[in-house]
Design goal:
- This protein is mainly alpha-helical.
- It is 75% helix and 0% strand.
- The chain contains eleven helices and no strands.
- The N terminus is likely disordered.
């Protein structure tokens, strides 16, 4: 029996190596495809660029969300790191600007990430958990800036979500024409957070539940397809 087990183990080793190789090829291809076309890019194109069958893709990543979880872990970690770095900065306004600028740079570099930060994909559990960690850190950055009097007191964390959504759309529209335009838009929106010339706002901020519902709605058309 022990000899049979050893033989069986030996027989599976090439398959495991092939599986790892295919997974790496798929992630490399997906990074290229999603970065240039966004999260709704056809998975068939990912498989084609990886030179594997679509069946192989689905064996490694049964859903689009599984692929997203594996692919964007590093970029989501970079966003978390930016929030942690900002928390250590003594100037609370500079800290908030640092975080939003760094996230904007990550968005501008990758249309897939640009899509991901502006939507919620409940089945992409690892990505959503990372985004929640970032959101908690950013809420603290905002409150610190408000306590220091450098951000108007009626701004809510969900307003920063809207700023990121807006940046995402500017990036999509202008990245091939004038790729730094998002920086101008973001600077204008950051000025709107300042208390100096603030006026009463015409309606309340989204509640956390409303923001979550809106982000789920944004994600649904992209990840409802295979």
């Amino acid at each position: 029996m022990s000899g049979m087990s050893s033989t069986a183990a030996d027989a599976t080793r090439p398959l495991r190596r092939d599986a790892r190789r295919n997974r790496d090829l798929l992630l490399t291809a997906a990074r290229t495809v999603f970065a240039s076309r966004g999260l709704d890019a056809p998975l068939e194109e990912v498989a084609r660029q990886a030179a594997v069958s679509i069946g192989t893709l689905y064996r490694r990543f049964p859903t689009r969300e599984d692929l997203i979880d594996a692919l964007f872990a590093d970029r989501l970690a970079a966003a978390c790191d930016a929030a942690r770095q900002a928390a250590d900065m003594p100037d609370s306004w500079a800290a908030l600007v640092h975080y939003l600028t760094r996230v904007g740079e990550l968005q501008a570099d990758d249309l897939g990430f640009n899509d991901l930060v502006g939507m919620s994909l409940p089945r992409a559990q690892a990505a959503e958990a990372s985004k929640r960690r970032s959101a908690e850190l950013v809420a603290r950055l905002l409150r610190r800036a408000q306590d220091d009097g450098v951000v108007r007191p009626d701004v809510e964390p969900e307003d920063l979500t809207l700023l990121i959504w807006g940046t995402a759309q500017v990036i999509r529209a202008t990245r091939d024409i004038a790729p730094d335009t998002w920086r101008r838009y973001q600077a204008l929106m950051l000025d709107a957070l300042r208390p100096g010339a603030a006026h009463d706002l015409p309606c309340p901020a989204l509640t956390p539940d409303q923001a979550q519902q809106a982000m789920i709605a944004l994600g649904r058309p992209r990840c409802s397809r295979s």
